[in-house]
Amino acid sequence: xxxxxxxxxxxxxxxxxxxxxxxxxxxxxxxxxxxxxxxxxxxxxxxxxxxxxxxxxxxxxxxxxxxxxxxxxxxxxxxxxxxxxxxxxxxxxxxxxxxxxxxxxxxxxxxxxxxxxxxxxxxxxxxxxxxxxxxxxxxxxxxxxxxxxxxxxxxxxxxxxxxxxxxxxxxxxxxxxxxxxxxxxxxxxxxxxxxxxxxxxxxxxxxxxxxxxxxxxxxxxxxxxxxxxxxxxxxxxxxxxxxxxxxxxxxxxxxxxxxxxxxxxxxxxxxxxxxxxxxxxxxxxxxxxxxxxxxxxxxxxxxxxxxxxxxxxxxxxxxxxxxxxxxxxxxxxxxxxxxxxxxxxxxxxxxxxxxxxxxxxxxxxxxxxxxxxxxxxxxxxxxxxxxxxxxxxxxxxxxxxxxxxxxxxxxxxxxxxxxxxxxxxxxxxxxxxxxxxxxxxxxxxxxxxxxxxxxxxxxxxxxxxxxxxxxxxxxxxxxxxxxxxxxxxxxxxxxxxxxxxxxxxxxxxxxxxxxxxxxxxxxxxxxxxxxxxxxxxxxxxxxxxxxxxxxxxxxxxxxxxxxxxxxxxxxxxxxxxxxxxxxxxxxx
Amino acid sequence: xxxxxxxxxxxxxxxxxxxxxxxxxxxxxxxxxxxxxxxxxxxxxxxxxxxxxxxxxxxxxxxxxxxxxxxxxxxxxxxxxxxxxxxxxxxxxxxxxxxxxxxxxxxxxxxxxxxxxxxxxxxxxxxxxxxxxxxxxxxxxxxxxxxxxxxxxxxxxxxxxxxxxxxxxxxxxxxxxxxxxxxxxxxxxxxxxxxxxxxxxxxxxxxxxxxxxxxxxxxxxxxxxxxxxxxxxxxxxxxxxxxxxxxxxxxxxxxxxxxxxxxxxxxxxxxxxxxxxxxxxxxxxxxxxxxxxxxxxxxxxxxxxxxxxxxxxxx
Lengths: 588, 315
What we know:
CATH topology of the largest domain in chain B: MetI-like fold
Number of strands of chain B: 0
Helix content of chain A: 25-40%
CATH superfamily of the largest domain in chain B: MetI-like
Shape of chain B: globular
Radius of gyration of chain A: 26 Å
Structural class of chain B: mainly alpha
CATH superfamily of the largest domain in chain A: P-loop containing nucleotide triphosphate hydrolases
CATH architecture of the largest domain in chain A: 3-Layer(aba) Sandwich
Radius of gyration of chain B: 24 Å
Helix content of chain B: over 70%
Number of domains of chain B: 2
Oligomer: heterodimer
Distance between the termini of chain A: 26 Å
Number of helices of chain B: 13
Shape of chain A: globular
Strand order of the largest sheet of chain A: 5-6-7-3-8-9
Strand content of chain A: 15-25%
Largest sheet of chain A: 6 strands, mixed
Number of strands of chain A: 19
Structural class of chain A: alpha/beta
CATH architecture of the largest domain in chain B: Orthogonal Bundle
Strand content of chain B: under 5%
Largest interface: A-B, 35 and 27 residues
């Protein structure tokens, strides 16, 4: 039997000063050239495992057990920093999650790649520049000759991640560890990056340890999967085994909540709790997926909340003709390039001729890659920014010419849930005060405020004890619930959600999406849902707008667009979205 | 980058212009007639009028302002009403003394603060780091005139290593020049070094938490090497800005230190001019101080983009 490339035995990690371990008896093997996915939600210990192998564990954590790496004798956990440093990027390399901050901002790209070659001295100095260029070509960097002289801030996230990959593979290591390498990237970029990682890893014949929380991603890249939960390995198996016949309860739950195409009896996504009823991803190439989106069922159930709720897409269209709730006509937003003393730089057109309307009760998804103008559009709709030309009407308020008083009325009626559940809540305010704040701004009496805050927290499934707590005492999913409660406490007609689940774990994502669906129904909300994740949008929205470079390239009913995308760009977006079904089809 | 430098230069000129208007206006608004002050309370109105005519004080303020600014642009700060002497040579001599003092002090404080701050950050949890942090905290609490007095008592009066006061130009004897400079420079630098140490420490701590330091370690550098190769230059960016502000503070701090050590610097001249109610000299000296502070800011503004390509590109 060939010697294992990586062997981890009984790895236990304890924070210094604490009794309870955060990682319990983790043991795993990697054969040379093998590709293994390490899956789990945040806090499951997958990154800690990787950091132990790299010798990059934070000092305040104490690791016990054994880690053996082919090419080094002895236990890596007992090696000193100098020995570990000599192994890093030589035998084992790592690509990190956050491409925006992983490169030194003051150093040219070429120098940063050259550095890793110089440190390990495997090739003569004179050949380094040529090798740097070769490495950039290997990761398909456009124009590698000039890319060498660029600084990180001049590159996109995807390009920076390519540079990271070039650095990691520069010395042809035996093992590459990727820690959520595509989580921060756009879907289309993610697809390319995954293919590139797979290709380069084969080219240098390295083993791969691929860490992710996204099952659909791992299926396309790995042969074998290790599932971690609360600091323990709960299941190991081939991709097909794990996906079709998961043994552990948590794996089943994770699988069920990852599948945005499957819904339970109530038209809701599966969560860890309801996963028992889940039957596995539909491998039959799904032209006629059963219960495709669940939108119709959902809207048919709608308690006739006044005259706002609209039952189906056709009626929505006719309602739009009479009185759309939101009307955006020929909106342009140009950011003037401003120089000191009137010196002009080139202008940036963030929005160009945007035209659409939203009927009351409609659920509109706005989809596009970063830089497509989604955020600018939201800013204008919510009155935080004004269009350069064009008209925007929300309810009976003309946003582009609104006084500050009518803007305040607008904000009561249109509330936003932001992407980052960690940064968007004031850490020094209690939950009760955070949720009550919009009511104070609206001048609601204290007694009614308290009543409404309590009602709202109940609606988002947080218990009354939460009221006295601070944001840091909650998990990401719970914080997003707090954000939703804050947004809905003024009883707005319109809820704008700006990537509300993209920072959340899959299992939590399903819960939050279900909550949103419930609330949209109960409160007869009109929903604007911005996302780069087409799976999520497909599940939640009845209408879709696809944006690219500040324009709407395609719009229409969700089913039509997914079934029959007219634009090349939309087709690419759909194709790039990782789905369990596709991934399993490809690997199986 | 060139546009950026030109823009900064124009800003510099505008700031100087505004400062000159403010300084001139303040001096003109002060109660009391300059000629009256110069001649004393017993002077006859005729003598005062004659002196006003002689110095051009009877002309409208706008004309006097342009006269003053025009003179300064040509390097002429005017003539003192009190002593009747040219002010320019006095300023030139005293600025040199102050410049030597202040530059030596900032260089010394950087030389102390950068290594100490870095060690304090690296040894954040051991006794070295804690000692440095505690010492810098004490240092900040000591005003520099107190530091000066303590240094004089210990090193001059007790040990007799350095003279307690006085100035010697380098041409008169370099050894004497250095010897007389040690105590004033050290007393100015110590407090600044204590403040700067804390900034360096927190900048280094911030930078050590950056993802690119982890990347550098993943590339095969040890923690310490990663800090030296990638960290310090990044940590320098906030430190440069703080050091620039400190340099301006040092100029003001020098006024007191020059008094204590009897150095013929611009601070001493300013104190003397104020005491003598020598308005023209005060005006000139304040303008020179403003000029120096603006130059320091200009240098900092140009230095930051040199270090940081992100700002260079935005510029």
